[in-house]
Structure formats: C-alpha cells, structure tokens
Design a protein that fits this description.
It contains twelve helices and 14 strands. It has 359 residues and is an alpha/beta fold. The longest helix has 36 residues. It binds adenosine-5'-diphosphate (ADP) and magnesium ion.
Length: 359
C-alpha cells in the first residue's frame, strides 16, 4: 500500500494540513522552521509509529493541544490509516478502523528515512549499520524476522550461561544459533550482493553526467559476517569456546556483522569528506530500497530530509540525474527549490510543495 493523501491535525507546528502526494517524487521546500522536517516526520510516524527525530512522541503534539492525529489515504485500495496520539496515552494506530500493531503497520506502509544519522552511515557504530540492514529485511521477509528472533533468543540464553561459566549449558544453544544464524547471514549476503548491483548501475549513470562521481565507483562494499567465513558458523563457535568463557560472551556470529565501505583499502569514514559520505549514504539507501521493492514486492517510501545540506553545488549536480530513475515514492526536503532547470521530469510525476504556502 502507499499513501496518496495525508492529513495532519495538531502535529508539530501544523494545526491542520492536507497534502496530496505524487506516487513518484515529492519535494517540500521552504525556509528554516517552516515545517519541512515535520512533514517528513509525520509520514514516517504514519508508517512505523515512531519518529526519526525523537523517542518522545509527546513532543510531536502541537504546543497547547492534547493530541495529534494523522490520517493517510491510499487511493488505489481505498484504505484509510489513522494514527492518534493523546498525551500520556499509548499511540493508537488503525487501518480501516481495525487496530494494528507497529510491526503490521511497518509491513503495510514501509518507509525508510535518510536523515542526519544515515548521512554519516559510515561514522556510526557497526550496530547502527547492522540495524539499517536488518530493518529492511525484517519488514520485507517474515522468515528473516523469525530467524532473527530465534537467533537473538538463543544468543541471550547462551550468554547467560557463559556469565555463570557453564560452557556445556552455553553449547546447548549452538544448534539454534547455527540454524538461524546461517539463514540470517545468507539473506544479508544476498542483500549486499544485489544492492551492490543496483548501486553500480546508479553510479554508472552518475558518471555519465559528472566525472566527479567516479569516486563512488571505486568503492569496495562487503559484508563482514561476524564469524570466520572459511570455517563457517558451526566451527567458528566451536573454536571460540575458550575465548567465550573468558569474556563471558559469544564472540563469533551474525550479531557481530557489519557492512564495510572501503576506498583504495582505506575506510570511507577516514577518507571521504562529509558531503561525499552523505551522497554515498543516500545512494546506498536508495539502492537498498529498490532491492526491497524488486525482490520482496514492497513499495517503500524513501524520505530524505535536507537534501543539499553538506553538499556543494557540484555534488548536488552529481546526484540530480538519479532522481529521475527512482521509481519508488521519494519524498525529500530542501531549503530552496533549485531543481527546475536541472531535472527532466517529463516521464514521471514530480510534485513540489512550498511549505510556507501550505497552511
Ligand atoms: N510540538 C510543537 N508544537 C508547535 N511547534 C513545534 C512543535 N515542535 C516543533 N515545532 C516548531 O515547528 C517548526 C517547524 O520545524 P521543522 O519541521 O523542524 O522545520 P524545518 O524542517 O522546515 O526547518 C519550528 O519552528 C519548531 O520550533
Ligand atoms: Mg528541517
């Protein structure tokens, strides 16, 4: 499902706002503080019950009001989504008048946000990148979610046994870890392999427009499984028994996985400028969304806040041709609308909203 209209009541700075969004690209532009991030945030909340800015949902209620409401309509299916949040009450989400859980919501209206954290994807801890990778697979594949829970349940129990120094009890969970962990690793590897192909196509298109984009094709991207690939998970677990006992935790396994981005043998975070890192993160996230659409028949919304912050004019120019090739719903914000002359949108519907004039 995908939204075509969204209505806000008492959400952040908006008392009442209705937006009809295009099924392709949407730009929200306007000066600082006019509400661009809030609009993107409302779409994110409507698709996963959380905000990308804060864990405190009460902050989203307009000052002086008791509750906020988001209503979203899907023209194709006629479905109506309603999100209500009243002060000191839990968030309430209904699809066609029936209550749904947050994971049901995330599967029905998946969205991914590229925000200030994702921009510096490579600067974050491995845990952040693992979550970014897992969230997509989690939403897309019920099998992945099953194996993820199976793996982490086993891991928790194994670590509890290691804490009290009981290796035979700890080893009792190895079969569960091997079974679920191998499947997790397989799906992650597959994702990285396929997303890399999409990414490579993107970069090739960019290079045809701007030579500076070559930088992005000289990157090695690979999954670090979190265990010794040559040995496999079973043997890796076996060989790390004494280290596990000593450190009282499981040292090998998919819970230690990471995606590595390197250029000429050096980590991106140590060599790329902030603007270059940001563009790389955008390209990678876009590619991941396209993969999810292609292989799992999801139609994820991609949210990108403040497109041009940290990007110089040439870097921005590097990216613009890409917008045309994004077939998913792409919703982004920028301080100014500088896209008119630079993008040929004749083949897709591109909507622009001057946020200051919406209310
Ligand atoms: N709960 C709230 N009630 C009323 N106004 C709010 C609330 N939260 C944030 N704001 C205000 O909403 C305005 C829009 O913020 P934001 O969406 O971040 O703007 P932009 O992204 O366009 O710079 C800001 O002036 C901010 O102070
Ligand atoms: Mg903003």
């Amino acid at each position: 499902m995908a939204f075509s209209r969204i209505e806000l009541r008492n959400f952040r700075c908006f008392e009442a706002l209705t937006i009809d969004i295009s099924s392709n690209s949407n730009l929200f532009y306007g000066k600082n503080g006019c509400g661009k991030t809030s609009i993107l945030e409302s779409i994110y909340v409507a698709s996963c019950g959380r905000s990308f800015r804060t864990s405190n949902l009460e902050a989203l209620i307009k000052n002086g009001s008791k509750s906020f409401k988001i209503r979203a309509y899907d023209d194709n299916t006629g479905s109506i989504l309603e999100v209500n949040k009243t002060k000191s009450k839990a968030i309430n989400i209904k699809i066609n008048n029936s209550l749904v859980t947050i994971s049901e919501l995330a599967r029905t209206f998946p969205s991914f946000s590229i925000d200030s954290k994702t921009f510096f994807y490579n600067d974050n801890a491995p845990d952040y990148r693992r979550k970014h990778l897992d969230r997509g697979l989690f939403i897309a594949s019920p099998d992945y979610a099953k194996d993820w829970f199976g793996y982490f349940r086993g891991l928790k129990q194994r670590n509890a046994a290691l804490k009290i120094g009981d290796i035979s009890q700890a080893k009792a969970y190895d079969d569960a870890l091997i079974d679920h962990g191998t499947k997790l690793n397989f799906l992650r590897e597959n994702l990285v392999l396929e997303v890399k192909k999409i990414y490579a196509d993107f970069v090739q298109t960019l290079e045809e427009h701007n030579k500076r984009a070559r930088l992005f094709s000289e990157i090695d991207i690979y999954l670090k499984s979190g265990f010794n690939d040559k040995l496999g998970l079973e043997e890796s677990l076996l060989q790390s028994n004494s280290a596990d006992l000593k450190r009282k935790t499981t040292n090998q396994g998919p819970h230690k996985a990471d995606i590595i981005f390197e250029s000429k043998g050096l980590l991106i975070k140590d060599t790329f400028s902030r603007g270059e890192q940001k563009l790389l993160s955008i390209l990678w996230s876009l590619s991941q969304n396209i993969y999810l659409e292609k292989f799992f028949k999801l139609s994820p919304i991609l949210l990108l806040d403040d497109l041009s912050s940290e990007l110089d004019a040439e870097m921005l120019d590097c990216f613009l041709p890409i917008i045309k090739y994004i077939e998913n719903r792409f919703i982004f914000s920028n301080i100014v609308d500088s896209f008119n002359s630079k993008i040929d949108f004749s083949e897709q519907s591109f909507k622009k909203f001057h946020v200051e004039q919406l209310t």
